[in-house]
Design goal:
The chain contains 14 helices and 23 strands. Strands 6, 7, 8, 9, 10, 11, 12, 13 and 16 form a 9-stranded mixed beta sheet that branches. A 4-stranded antiparallel beta sheet has the order 3-4-1-5, with helices on one face. A 4-stranded antiparallel beta sheet has the order 14-15-17-18.
Length: about 475
């Protein structure tokens, strides 16, 4: 790859000539392959030959890149393919988030940090995962559904739409849009689009985003700021600006020296965490954590609409709500109705959800359980991917590798040995989704928008990642 001379000059001013040379050499190499395991879904994955990502207990480096699209467990949400550097979120969360919180992931697509946060948040927490770009927001909702958590709301809004939610969030994660310098070796488009002028546009836009969202953070709350870029304008200088202009304290995170994480590179000497590819096994990444100054304030207080709640309670018979509730294993989640759909949502946040509907465009709330058609309940795909799902509600049928890939392409299956009616199809005993077995054929209920479109798939093989259970 050929890097812009202006970028090299920028880095020489920040790192010096020798360190920049090492960085440029690292950017010419193949990036490491890493993923994060969802242990709530499966223990069937074995990483005997895999190196653990030092700052993430669930993170693993793979010595080679397999065809993830060909792995049914990837589609089932058993792991998330994520860049290792961004898994540093675990260190911040474990250091500063020990009690249940209401958290916002403001720029959340495609969902790496959101699914990671869902694995890290204390029980009783709620995550609002937001993405302004509609297509990316749909991908975000899909990835969160596959991860299986019910304690989440997915929204599709501009940051300015959150202004009505003053003092609501205990934690806000802002992985802000940036110039993408840290993605140079993965994305050649990032190189061709880079310019000093674009860097300037980015740091100014980042400050506008931060200004819009800052009132939504409670006094004493945490702002986690991150980028996938190297320059100081979008990194240290923006953190210093948050501290001086918005009134925040920059907080330290304990980092062992052997991890190879770089600290502040400007005269501000603030605690920040840089991942440079020539020093750390990962892509370019930057993170800082700040605490909003304590102050007297009026806590956010959701005011549920009695009219809306009455409508919701009268749309569907109580028998349907009771039956859907029997499909999940949780006393902390309530079954709610929205039109003809039933879904499970954390009881503690039902009033807040009503308030959010008045301000935000909500794409997904909790876990969809079923659609009501007359006296029948049609189970939702979300249900069987959820960690709330009771595994004995519907009969399960284990698929072969060939059958599983056919299912994920949304092809018609033949399951003559399976009982008639709704059946959960599995791979390695992990639910992939639902079919309706008619005897002669099984109607494939996999979501059409999720289907694998490639007609030819390489066999999923990795010398490092084996699957313990038999075919």
């Amino acid at each position: 790859m050929t890097l812009p001379q202006a970028f090299i000059a920028q880095m020489e001013g920040l790192l010096g000539v020798e360190q920049t040379r090492q960085l440029v050499e690292a950017l010419q190499t193949e990036p490491p392959v890493s993923l994060r395991v969802n242990w709530q879904k499966t223990e069937a994955l074995d990483f005997q030959n895999c190196e653990i990502v030092p700052w993430c207990s669930d993170g693993r480096y793979l010595p080679e890149r397999p065809s993830f699209t060909s792995d049914p467990l990837f589609h089932a949400g058993c792991y998330y393919v994520q860049e290792a550097s961004s898994m540093f979120l675990e260190q911040v969360m474990r250091c500063y988030v020990q009690q249940p919180v209401c958290m916002l992931d403001l720029c959340a697509a495609p969902g790496g940090k959101s699914t990671h946060a869902l694995s890290l948040l204390p029980e009783g927490s709620l995550l609002i995962a937001n993405e302004i770009v509609p297509q990316r927001a749909q991908v975000l909702a899909e990835n969160i559904t596959k991860w299986g958590s019910a304690d989440v709301v997915v929204t599709g809004n501009d940051p300015s739409a959150f202004t009505a939610l003053e003092n609501l969030f205990d934690v806000i994660l802002t992985d802000v849009p940036c110039s993408g310098e840290g993605m140079f070796r993965k994305d050649e488009t990032a190189i061709t689009e880079w310019s000093p002028e674009n860097v300037a546009l980015c740091w100014q836009r980042q400050r506008r985003i931060l200004s819009d969202i800052w009132p939504c953070l409670k006094p004493g709350g945490l702002l986690i700021y991150s980028t996938c870029t190297f320059n100081a304008q979008e990194d240290e200088e923006n953190v210093a600006w948050i501290a001086s202009e918005l009134g925040a304290e920059v907080l330290p995170v304990e980092v062992p020296e052997e991890w190879g994480i770089t600290g502040c590179l400007t005269k501000d000497a603030i605690p920040v965490y840089r991942f440079l590819p020539h020093r750390t096994k990962g892509e370019g990444f930057f993170m800082a954590v700040l605490r909003k100054a304590e102050a007297d304030y009026r806590p956010f207080s959701p005011r549920p609409s009695k009219k809306k709640e009455k409508q919701k309670g009268s749309v569907l018979p109580k028998e349907a709500l009771k039956q859907a509730a029997s499909w999940i294993d949780s006393a902390a989640h309530e079954v709610l109705a929205e039109g003809d759909m039933l879904y499970a949502f954390p009881q503690a946040y039902v009033a807040l959800l009503t308030a959010l509907r008045g301000s935000l465009r909500i794409l997904k709330a909790g876990v969809a359980l079923a659609q009501v058609k007359g006296r029948d309940l049609i189970p939702a795909h979300d249900l069987v991917l959820s960690t709330l799902y009771k595994k004995d509600v519907f009969p399960h049928v284990e698929l072969t590798e060939k059958q599983a890939l056919a299912y994920l392409r949304r092809e018609v299956l033949s399951l003559p040995e399976a009982p008639r009616g709704y059946v959960v199809v599995t791979k390695k005993h992990v639910p992939l989704g639902l079919v309706k077995n008619l005897g002669s054929r099984a109607n494939n209920l996999y979501p059409a928008e999720w289907r694998i479109r490639s007609s030819y798939l390489k066999s999923f093989k990795s010398s490092s990642m084996s699957q313990n259970s038999s075919e």
